[in-house]
Structure prediction request, 399 residues.
Amino acid sequence: MEEAYIVEMKQKIFDAVRKCRICISCYNDCPLQESTTGFVTQGPTGITKSLYYGILWDALKGKDAEDLRDILYRCTTCGSCVNRCRKSACGIDVVGVIEAGRQFLVEKMIGPLPDQVKALEALDQEKNPYGELAEKRTQWLEAIDPQEAQKVKVLADGAKAENLLFVGCTCSYDPDLIKMPEALVKVLNCAGLDYGIMKDEGCCGDPALRIGEAGLFEELAGGNVEKIANCGAGRVINACPHGYHTLQNNYTDWENKPEVQHYTQAFADYLTQGKLQVKKKIDRRVTFHDPCYLGKRNNIYDAPRVILDKIAGDRFVEMKRNRADSLCCGGGGGRMFAEIEETTRLSELRVRHALEVGAEIIATACPWCYIQLSDGIKTSGNEGKIEVRDLADLLAECL
Ligand code: SF4
Ligand code: SF4
Prediction:
């Protein structure tokens, strides 16, 4: 006899998948169509129908179970299919189905992918997926310009600030990304904001939720909600789109929900209001890669372009595929923590798109997009021709 919540989970999956008309409108929008040629189960409906029949026919043992797991965890959770189904068909929350499916597989001990287990253990123990020590979370402050660092309030023991910079795990721990938090701090200092960072910030929970560990997600979310409330901040500014999306859309336990923004939104406002003055412009041709968790998942397309208009003017050029048509970099949905088989790397395709429009810089606004695209430049042999920069870093250079 299955427990009630498993029955409920299965029903949710069945109800959503049965609505699918198999019109395959969503297929052309799915990045897996471009990266996994040859797999019959690539694409949104291939994934959801595999899940449906896997559960219905009880194909949850041995090789069948492994195949189903691999099909389900290939999705980047980019959201293209959800938008397409909403526009052209019947509004199925395909990502919701896939995430519920992953939770189901975790409950049945079929998921997650073996590589992802380590990340979940690290999240449980150190509140970050990289296995770094929790007490070293704010150590990045020691590696940036001390004059900028000393203006950052490190909030602990009930200390308050009007705004909270939610730094996230990747910006806190990845030394290759140090320019990103450094730039965020420089811009916030320049805007004269009263802000702080949490000394004991924990992972936003995105990796746990996307991988299907709902219990761990609830624990991380609950911890952050309580700590954010203790800081008294009326607004949370997220460095990472995944943190933004998760706090904005997946945290349900707020007593008094603060305003939640991605940094591009806050900085675009400051530029428009004149709180930030651009003193010089980027003198190289720059394009923008829309992170899926900003654009497709949250419809934030204009704010990054307000910044680019101010700092690059006519040196900014759109890739052929931009905004809602942008191609996923391949890093979302827990894929940062596993090696996913791809016939063509999404990150390399995206680098090719940028080179096609003559860009020398790919700007983005997400630490995972930054890592993916930087790898794509290396693996496609384009080092020296183009570089990836975070938008905050570009803006900081222009102030
Ligand atoms: S667009 Fe919607 S209805 Fe059509 S195949 Fe995709 S999920 Fe199914
Ligand atoms: S969320 Fe993106 S990767 Fe996943 S099935 Fe939909 S379109 Fe494909």
